[in-house]
Design brief:
By secondary structure, the chain is mostly helical. It is built from 4 helices and 2 strands; from the N terminus they run H-H-H-H-E-E. Helix content is 33%, strand content 3%.
């Protein structure tokens, strides 16, 4: 996902799908903050390079004409084998919350990640 601030997103026409182009600056640091992932400046630089390469590859794939190609999920022919959904005992609320940093009234508490603007 390419992050746009509120002002930038208001400049886009309604319903316009934003596509990546090589002139865009990817906001790796902001996305890491949204995911609550601490990253070093070197990691940020590496991730930006890797994500740019990935997005460029996806753009290249988007140029391929697949109009007459039947969609497939996989090519092996294997099918999912699932077990019957049977209720079983699970963790108590105290056990589930035992490794979290913060709780509030019996729930997980996390820092806000969305801006209020």
């Amino acid at each position: 996902m390419i992050h746009l601030n509120k002002k930038q997103s208001q400049l886009l026409p309604i319903g316009l799908e934003l596509k990546y182009n090589k002139f865009m600056k990817l906001d790796i640091k902001h996305n890491a903050q949204l995911a609550n992932l601490p990253i070093t400046p070197q990691e940020e630089k590496n991730l930006e390079k890797q994500l740019t390469e990935t997005l460029n590859y996806i753009e290249m794939l988007n140029e391929i004409d697949t109009k007459n190609i039947e969609p497939t999920a996989h090519v092996t022919g294997l099918e999912n084998i699932t077990r019957e959904d049977v209720p079983a005992p699970s963790l108590s609320q105290n056990q589930a919350l035992s490794n979290t940093k913060k709780t509030h009234q019996g729930f997980f508490e996390v820092n806000a990640i969305l801006d209020n603007d």
